[in-house]
Amino acid sequence: GAVVSQHPSWVICKSGTSVKIECRSLDFQATTMFWYRQFPKQSLMLMATSNEGSKATYEQGVEKDKFLINHASLTLSTLTVTSAHPEDSSFYICSARDIGGDQPQHFGDGTRLSIL
Amino acid sequence: QKEVEQNSGPLSVPEGAIASLNCTYSDRGSQSFFWYRQYSGKSPELIMFIYSNGDKEDGRFTAQLNKASQYVSLLIRDSQPSDSATYLCAVMNSGYSTLTFGKGTMLLVSP
To answer: pLDDT tens for residues B77-110?
Structure first.
């Protein structure tokens, strides 16, 4: 149980392109999903908390217009990196938590984004 | 600033030994604690979670929590080379919202 699917797993694209990443909870409903990015040999950095049916809550220093988050249903959240540049290249990972305040977060497989 | 501290390692243990991974946290209001394993290039995988003081065992893994000392640990018995990975300690912040992660401890189990 508690499977989170993330797609695509790898993206290589040109600078200026917008990239959409999908995160789905396959066997549970997730009112809250989270988006992280991770640079090599560093820990996870929370970018934003995505709540179904409402606006995402972004962490300090994360540009809302750059990283668009939509959580349209209880099983799907999307992150769109708009007008991506080489400095946006990173490992992006989503997680989802089942309904219930202290449930653990389960992670998707991550998306490795490379901007040329 | 809520902080979660872990020794970065690497922690090297021989196959079959017990590996002990430690974590301290700063938020006294935290109630939920998690251990994740992350292989190089992969996303984190939940190993264990613990909410109450004391020990919680699951197979070869034991999580230990001491809220008074703000200390969480993970013991891995009969360590295997396949256990070689980075282990992330995560603490759920007060209010049941986000997790704060430590920087992780790299574990190396030699055959």
So the answer is: 999 999 999 999 999 987 657 899 999 999 999 9
Question: Residue B91 has what pLDDT?
Answer: 94
Neighbours of B94 (CB within 10 A): 12
Helix (H, G, I), strand (E, B) or coil at A56: coil
Contacts of A91 (CB under 8 A, 6+ apart): A37, A38, A39, A110, A111, A112, A113
Distance CA A24, CA A5 (A): 5
User: Does residue A54 surpass a pLDDT of 90?
Assistant: no
Angle at A30 between CA A59 and CA A60, to 5 degrees: 0
Mutate to test the interface with B, among A9, A43, A62 (most CBs of B within 10 A): A43
Residues of chain B contacting residue A101, judged by C-beta atoms under 8 Å apart: 96
**Cβ contact B101–A44 (<8 Å):** yes
Residue B32 and residue A43: Cβ atoms within 8 Å?
A: no
For A72, the enclosing helix (H) or strand (E) is: strand A67-73
